[in-house]
Specification:
Helix 4 crosses helix 5. With 175 residues, the protein is mostly helical. A hairpin with an 8-residue loop joins strand 1 and strand 2. It has 2 domains: 68 residues, SRF-like, CATH 3.40.1810; 60 residues, no CATH class. It starts with 13 loop residues before the first helix and ends in a 25-residue tail after the last helix. The chain has a two-stranded antiparallel ribbon. It contains 5 helices and 2 strands; from the N terminus they run αββαααα.
Length: 175
């Protein structure tokens, strides 16, 4: 039997609200119990009810405290410090792309003779150039490997003499 759509809004009648809270919290505990049994996971449920001095805790206070302590120990606060918001990420990405563009310009200048022997190039630019060349070489090697694996073995070309019809012994000779 299909359930009717539940209208999610504040229940103004106190007794109806308390009855709904009790029914939903028991249902939540049952679902948590089913989830732990079926999936073999550990979880706890803490529900703060209106007007209650202590929260309702499932499965027990001790198990919930142990689980929450374990969760807090696993939470690495130092990793949160390394996270970036969207603006910081885009700024660092833009800076990196700008540096790569400058390195490409340096590489192009050196290839066309604009900087013979890398005259006027500082150590940072040379290291950046080295990294870019290494990256491009790895891409080339990977592409060559990909082509070599995907390529079928082709028959060897015939020696040059075999193109001469007189040299072929299988052909009947013209008399």
């Amino acid at each position: 039997m299909a359930r009717k759509k539940v209208n999610l809004q504040w229940i103004s009648n106190d007794s109806t609200r308390r009855a709904t809270y009790k029914r939903c919290s028991e249902s939540l505990e049952k679902k948590a119990s089913e989830l732990t049994t079926l999936c073999g996971i550990k979880l706890c449920v803490v529900v703060y009810g209106q007007g209650e001095a202590q929260p309702k805790v499932w499965p027990s206070n001790e198990e919930a405290k142990d689980l929450l302590m374990k969760f807090n120990r696993r939470l690495d606060v130092s990793s949160l410090k390394k996270t970036k918001n969207q603006e910081e990420f885009l700024q660092s990405r833009s800076l990196k792309l700008h540096e790569q563009h400058e390195t490409l310009d340096l590489l192009h200048d050196s290839m066309v003779g604009g900087r013979p022997g890398f005259i006027g190039t500082d150590k940072g630019e040379l290291l950046s150039l080295k990294d870019m060349v290494d990256m491009k070489m790895r891409k080339i090697e990977a592409r060559l490997q990909q082509l070599a694996v995907g390529e079928e073995v082709l028959p060897q070309p015939l020696p040059q003499d075999s193109y001469n019809l007189g040299a072929c012994s299988r052909l009947p000779s013209a008399k």
